[in-house]
Amino acid sequence: MGFGLITTGLPGIGKTLFLFLIWHLRRAENFPTLFMVHPDSALLWKDSRLMLSQVVPEDVPAMIPSEAWCLVDSNRSLIDVPEFLTARGCFIIQAASPREPRMEWKKKHTNVDYLVMKPWSAEELVSGLQLQDISRTKTTADSLVKFRDRSGGSALDAYRYASDMSLCEAVISGAARRINGDMVERAFTSSPSSLKLPTDGHKLSVFPLSDRDRQKYLITSPSECLYERVLSIINKDREVASLRLYNLCVGWPTPGPRALAARIFKRYHDQIKHS
């Protein structure tokens, strides 16, 4: 059996583009590589040839060399890594937003790691503006900086909503109405593969705990403004919500919730000591 990697993080930060980068690098070196976006077809680079192949599970052993890499994009119609790929024993890289059931294969295979991508910085968003169709957008550098500060570093959302924050606000408000306090509390202590939120509820998502180790993750909000709104779903009183979240996370066995508890402790040190 091979092993694998799941590239995950905030939606709209380039997880699929990361797969395309790997695809082109491997083609340049003539390494056998499969790229799946749809459940029943795939691009295959093998023996210096590019093929568009129908994927029939029974034909996979003959079609895909064991030394091939399989790139799986689960951000569209292909929800999870197909079992016939894991059974082939190839190295697999999946790109997926953190949400059930997109990473079910990880629950069956212990030798699969996360690679958590960072959101875009304000500087990166402004630099990327030159690649957008300026004639069709009113987005400016200033509006991108304001968007990043308020709503986080999703490039997809930034270039879509920065010129009209009222549209972004409508999406956020709609998602908030579909999330209750129990869902929020469970989310903060979930893993990327078991996160249960509405499709547009990614204002609570997965982020790298630090740059030193991208396998360690923290589930939180992409900005302080959105974090405040998520807390208000737990309790309208920010302090009450924070202390409730602290008590939930402080004894958790994984690093992410404990890191969140440490942040809360730093802000509410006296209240926690006397509670």
From TrEMBL:
High-level lineage = Eukaryota, Fungi, Dikarya, Basidiomycota, Agaricomycotina
**Superkingdom of this protein's organism:** Eukaryota
Q: Which organism is it from?
A: Rhodocollybia butyracea
Q: What is this protein called?
A: Uncharacterized protein
